[in-house]
Amino acid sequence: MSSTPTEIRYHVNKSITVEQFSQLLSETTLGPRRPLDNPECLAGMLEHADILVTAWAGERLIGIARSVTDFHYCCYLSDLAVSESVQKSGVGKALIQMTCRQLKHNCKVILLAAPLAQEYYPRLGFDQHPSAWTCTAEHLI
After folding, report:
1. Which of 33, 55, 93, 130 has its CA 20 to 30 A from that of 64?
2. CB-hemisphere CA count at 13 Å for 71?
3. How far, in Å, CA of 50 to CA of 71, rounded?
4. How big is the CA angle at 12 (ends 76 and 126), to the nearest 5 degrees?
5. Which candidate, 54, 30, 52, places its Cα nearest to that of 120?
6. How many independent structural domains does the chain possess?
7. Domain that residue 102 falls in
8. Using one digit for the tens of pLDDT, what is the confidence trace for 32-86?
9. Where are the alpha helices (DSSP H) in 9-109?
10. Per the domain annotation, does 72 fall within a domain?
11. In this structure, what CATH number is given to the domain that contains residue 31?
């Protein structure tokens, strides 16, 4: 008996649970850099995202693109996570394309690449920016 691959479905702004989000992140190299031990933070990340594009294989969440944006000038693609079990199948590219379809024509997409994804984004047309700066809000208060 041969198994047929499950069709991947994509949704924009479909609600997901903190548990689904956490499980997906744990299946990626992004997981160690996200607060998996802080459900309150994960809930806030989901609640305050402006664009949430998800990829599903059956009932299983296999990919997410979570963005914060003004829709006109800039869109910060803060999380692009695809389960390692389906990476290199076009899911990440489709998630980014669906995110971009939610934006006005000249809106810039900005992201910080995970160390293992440094070479992925140029293949999609992203240009590397020479400087980026981060710190916690607490540090600036």
Report:
1. 130
2. 7
3. 9
4. 35
5. 30
6. 1
7. 8-140
8. 999 999 999 999 999 999 999 999 999 999 999 999 999 999 999 999 999 999 9
9. 18-26, 39-47, 91-100
10. yes
11. 3.40.630.30
21, 64 contact by CB (below 8 A) = yes
Domain annotation covers residue 112: yes
Q: How confident is the model at residue 136 (pLDDT cuts 50, 70, 90)?
A: confident
Residue whose tokens read 């916690």:
136
Residue 45 lies in a domain: yes
* 1 within a domain of the structure (yes/no): no
pTM over 0.85: yes
DSSP 125: T
- The pLDDT tens digits for 79-127 are 999 999 999 899 999 999 999 999 999 999 999 988 778 889 999 999 9
CB of 19 closer than 8 Å to CB of 46: no
Non-local (6+) Cβ contacts of 72 within 8 A are 103, 104, 107
